[in-house]
Amino acid sequence: MRTVTVGTRGSTLALAQTHWVVARLKEEWPETDFRIQTIATKGDRNRASLISMAKEGDKGFWIKEIEDALLAKRIDIAVHSLKDLPTSQPEELEVASIPKRVDARDVLIGKEGMKRLADLPQGARVGTSSVRRKAFLKAFRPDLQIVGLRGNIDTRLAALASDEYDAIILAAAGLIRTEMRHRIDEFIEPDIMLPAPGQGALALETRADDDLTVEVAYAIHDHTTDDRITAEREFLAGLGAGCMAPVGAHATVKGGILTLEGWVAALDGSQVLRATTSGDPSECAELGAELANDTLGQGAQALVDAAHEQIA
Ligand SMILES: NCc1[nH]cc(CCC(=O)O)c1CC(=O)O
């Protein structure tokens, strides 16, 4: 029996999504034995200094150790949240497969009487440490107070019980995958808060020359998800921005047409540039690049640069 070792971080979410991936792979490859290996990353060990790590240009703080394990052949497939994966991989590695995406939206979870964003009282305190969520929240409701909120999903949900927050914002996908959908009070529509590029999608990374494993992983590839997230990530890349930028992107495919929406915001929400384009899904990369150029033409570079400076 062939054995494929699947590597992941050890958080509840990372393990839940890896168990889901392995169950899907096992359906396609019943003769293969899949093992799960957990790996601690710098992001797991040192949560407090995410911002300072970003300042050092250390983009892959959730993935470096996992990619090292792939290169050293300790694991064969790495499972990542796609939105945490930099837009390019080391030369010896590749994203071999992108499974079907779950809900890309952000959600609100609130205390009693604080269950809808539009209905929150004046000056309500909303927990998030995402610059994108903060900027779009401030643009929608300048009165809201944004309070930092870090940690894995369990930590963030527990923090809501404290006095510091009236409501918190999380990705729907994380709650759905950890069987906590029932905790969601409101799905925030993309016309209020555009999701992060790739939110709700996973990436299976392999060694580029490991043909057998690439084939195993590719069996659960979803072409429509791939087209959508390619458009979203090309938009982000075209802006020269990373996952710490106040940038949202969301692509949908309906009736054979891909529609991509992209937003770039000032950190304080005082300005949001919005653009949209559509075309054939096979043109997904070009559509992303074109949309980045469109927002650059509207002055997006100044917003991205200002965000880089303020965060650094
Ligand atoms: N940055 C952390 C992170 N990375 C992936 C998810 C879960 C959602 C997903 O798969 O996109 C989360 C938590 C969150 O943003 O609430």
UniProtKB/TrEMBL annotation:
Residues 228-294 form the Porphobilinogen deaminase C-terminal domain. Gene3D superfamilies: Periplasmic binding protein-like II (3.40.190.10), Porphobilinogen deaminase, C-terminal domain (3.30.160.40). Residues 4-213 form the Porphobilinogen deaminase N-terminal domain. Keywords: Porphyrin biosynthesis, Transferase. Pfam families: Porphobil_deam (PF01379), Porphobil_deamC (PF03900). GO terms for molecular function: hydroxymethylbilane synthase activity. The modification S-(dipyrrolylmethanemethyl)cysteine is found at C243. It is an enzyme of class 2 (transferase). PROSITE patterns: PORPHOBILINOGEN_DEAM. Pathway: Porphyrin-containing compound metabolism; protoporphyrin-IX biosynthesis; coproporphyrinogen-III from 5-aminolevulinate: step 2/4. InterPro entries: HemC, Porphobilin_deaminase_cofac_BS, Porphobilin_deaminase_N, Porphobilinogen_deaminase_C, Porphobilinogen_deaminase_C_sf. GO terms for cellular component: cytoplasm. Its cofactor is dipyrromethane. It catalyses: 4 porphobilinogen + H2O = hydroxymethylbilane + 4 NH4(+). Binds 1 dipyrromethane group covalently. The porphobilinogen subunits are added to the dipyrromethane group. Monomer. Tetrapolymerization of the monopyrrole PBG into the hydroxymethylbilane pre-uroporphyrinogen in several discrete steps. This is Porphobilinogen deaminase. The gene is hemC.
